[in-house]
């Protein structure tokens, strides 16, 4: 190899080395930019997740049961009520799980879904429309597949309102709101030896508010409207900015006045703070 060829070779090696260096710098800079972008995205995601996790949930379980095989005719209002209340609550920021014509298994699964979504300080609402029966001084929500022939069957086939409330409380919910529209003359009553009209008083846990469609031990006849009197008046008085206790009490008063005292809903409260129905 002569001197001229050696010089060309050295310049070629230097040129290639320079190009490789530039490529390496470019790759390094690109990687650094990607890492910074990824770190920023992770930070934003973590912040957003923290905001979601820190925000108290507003949850509702809505159950409307209308088609009971033991009844002489289906109940039209509970399903209409469930749908109307669901729409109103969703507009007010509630995450609603609605179940229609629920079997006992359906109701148990719905309660488990509700429990899994409750975070600390959550506001939780339970609505049940259908047949309710009292047994042993407890009020039970009746699934559509209940097989009830005697009063002792109610505890096995029904779902205790108070037991669901206790499970919600144990999950750490801050406020518990309950609307039970089930004080109807049930189709099982003629099979019972003892008198079992209406619902029993429902014991409210701490920081809870309960609205039932009639006085304990009383029944209320269904109206001819698409919705029950209780839900119709509740929706008429619904104000997302008002305190829920005020809304429930206005509903109770308006029904009592409209029926000339024939139907008087019950409101039981252990609320220790103002709870609004809006977000």
Describe, in plain words, how this protein is organized in 3D.
This protein is of the alpha/beta class and 279 residues long. 44% of the residues lie in helices and 16% in strands. The chain is built from 7 helices and 9 strands. Helix 6 (229-237) packs across helix 7 (244-258). The longest helix is centred in the N-terminal third of the chain and has 52 residues, at 3-54. It is globular. The termini are far apart.
Strand-helix topology:
Blueprint: H1 3-54, E1 58-64, H2 77-91, E2 95-100, H3 104-117, E3 123-129, E4 132-135, E5 138-141, H4 151-157, E6 159-160, H5 161-170, E7 175-181, E8 208-212, H6 229-237, H7 244-258, E9 266-269
Parallel strand pairs: 1-2, 1-3, 3-7, 7-8
Antiparallel strand pairs: 4-5, 5-6, 8-9
- The H-and-E topology, N to C, reads as HEHEHEEEHEHEEHHE
Mean pLDDT: 84
The helix tally amounts to: 7
How would a textbook summarize the main sheet?
6 strands, mixed
The rounded distance between the terminal residues' Cα atoms is: 85 Å
Tell me the Rg in angstroms: 31 Å
What's the total number of strands? Answer: 9
Percentage of residues in strands: 15-25%
Specify the structural class.
alpha/beta
Strand order of the largest sheet: 2-1-3-7-8-9
Task: Provide the helix percentage.
Answer: 40-55%
């Amino acid at each position: 190899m002569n001197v001229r060829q050696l010089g060309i070779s050295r310049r070629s090696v230097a040129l290639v080395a320079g190009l490789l260096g530039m490529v390496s710098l470019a790759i390094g800079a690109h990687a650094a930019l990607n890492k910074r972008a990824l770190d920023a995205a992770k930070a934003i995601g973590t912040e957003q997740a923290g905001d979601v996790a820190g925000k108290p949930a507003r949850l509702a379980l809505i159950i409307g049961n209308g088609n009971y095989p033991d009844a002489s005719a289906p109940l039209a209002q509970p399903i209409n009520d469930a749908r109307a209340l669901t729409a109103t609550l969703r507009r007010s920021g509630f995450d609603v799980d609605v179940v229609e014509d629920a079997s006992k298994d359906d109701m148990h699964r719905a309660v488990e879904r509700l429990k899994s979504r409750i975070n600390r300080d959550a506001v939780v609402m339970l609505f049940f429309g259908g047949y309710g029966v009292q047994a042993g001084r407890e009020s039970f929500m009746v699934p559509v597949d209940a097989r009830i022939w005697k009063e002792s069957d109610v505890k096995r086939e029904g779902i205790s309102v108070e037991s669901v409330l206790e499970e919600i409380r144990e999950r750490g919910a801050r406020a518990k709101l309950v609307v039970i529209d089930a004080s109807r003359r049930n189709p099982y009553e003629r099979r019972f030896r003892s008198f079992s009209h209406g619902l029993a008083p429902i014991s409210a846990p701490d920081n809870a508010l309960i609205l039932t469609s009639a006085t304990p031990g009383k029944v209320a006849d269904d109206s001819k409207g698409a919705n029950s009197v209780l839900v119709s008046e509740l929706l008429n008085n619904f104000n997302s900015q008002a305190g829920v206790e005020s809304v429930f009490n206005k509903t109770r008063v308006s029904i009592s006045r409209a029926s000339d005292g024939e139907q008087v809903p019950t409101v039981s409260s252990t609320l220790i703070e103002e709870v609004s129905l809006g977000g």
